[in-house]
Amino acid sequence: MLTRSGPLSLATRPVTLFTKSEPAVERPNIQVDTQPLSADEHGDGVQEFYAFPSSACRLRPHSRGLMKIQSSEAQEYPAIHPNHLSDERDYGVAVGWVQIAQRIAEVPSLVRRLIDEYVPERQFHSDDEALLHVTRQHSQTIHHPTSTCKTGYDEAPVVDGRLGVQGIQHLMMVDAPLCRRSCWVIPMCQPL
């Protein structure tokens, strides 16, 4: 980092691509980030081999997760159930991205440098059902929850129709949890 070289001198996602999962889609529905380092899970540390993993984010997903407060104690984490790929309308987008990544990896200038494919393995290339299964196994959240707070004027909402927090005078909330549907890219851009 001090010498401006090595892995800490790189951006975490130096390449981002917006694309369509299939030609019939009107607007891009996938955001792809390619990283210079690889890890199986957040916090696991870097793989012991060189890799340039690509991860896809479904823009405007139909699948809906759930966050639920488990206790009145502020120190206790909420229950988080992402429900990745729980809506069938998201299946084709997931499989479509893997197929796009595979086509990118077949570009002659990359083929000369690639040794192998880590996930999904090459034998799954022509099997949509297997690609969906692998995608489900490796999907994870990118930590941008939206649509988790109810708004309205009855007793149940977190905020009223003017964004005032229920039970706390003069406090307003303007944040992604108030959005009814997830926006295109980073949810924090939506309320701003």
Structural notes for this entry:
The protein is an alpha+beta fold. The chain has two domains: 7-143, Glucose Oxidase, domain 3 (2-Layer Sandwich); 144-192, no CATH class. The protein has helices at 91-105, 108-111, 128-138, and strands spanning 15-19, 30-34, 54-58, 66-68, 79-81. Strands 1-2-3 form a three-stranded antiparallel β-sheet, with helices on one face. It has a two-stranded antiparallel ribbon with strand order 4-5.
Question: What is the secondary structure topology, with strand pairs?
Answer:
Layout (H helix, E strand, L loop, with lengths): L14 E5 L10 E5 L19 E5 L7 E3 L10 E3 L9 H15 L2 H4 L16 H11 L54
Antiparallel strand pairs: 1-2, 2-3, 4-5
Helix pairs in contact: 1-3
Give the key terms.
alpha+beta, 2 domains, globular, two-stranded antiparallel ribbon, 11% strand, three-stranded antiparallel β-sheet, Glucose Oxidase, domain 3, 192 residues
Question: Could you provide a short overview of the structure?
Answer:
The chain is an alpha+beta fold and 192 residues long. Helix content is 16%, strand content 11%. It contains three helices and five strands; from the N terminus they run E-E-E-E-E-H-H-H.
Arrangement of strands in the largest sheet: 1-2-3
- Class by alpha and beta content: alpha+beta
Q: Might you state the CATH topology name of the largest domain?
A: Glucose Oxidase, domain 3
Question: Biggest sheet, in brief?
Answer: 3 strands, antiparallel
Going by CATH, the homologous superfamily of the largest domain would be Glucose Oxidase, domain 3
Please, how many domains? 2
| Uncertain spans | none
Q: What's the alpha carbon Rg, rounded to whole Å?
A: 20 Å
